[in-house]
Amino acid sequence: MLAYWIHSHRKKEKKKFPKEVAARKADKLNYRYPGTSGESYQDLISRCGELVCMLEQSRGNSLVICDRAIFRVVSAYFCGQTIDEIPHMCVNKGVLELSRSEKGFSATEFDVGAGRATTSHGPGTVLN
Prior knowledge:
The chain has helices spanning 2-7, 10-16, 18-26, 41-47, 49-57, 68-79, 116-119; strands at 94-101, 104-111. It is of the alpha+beta class.
């Protein structure tokens, strides 16, 4: 059910699962998707704790490739946003550079245009 839930169109979600859509809208931070693998932002924050610690302790550069939910958690931690802001953060396609300074971290966003292989043919498609 989770795969269907995530990949179905928004209009279909509203018609087929109106109570779930309303519950998620009411409390996006604590809402857990139905099914055995459903996860709330609170669950995700706990799961990302080790990643955040590893990044914070890193002395060199690190590259994290992740989905939007993990991006929200990691960037919120390093940019000083509150836990309540995490589910509502805007995520643009691109690269976020976090630079360490005496005052903490500063963030710089770099836009990355989607290529043909990631838009019209699916991710990872090799085009000749």
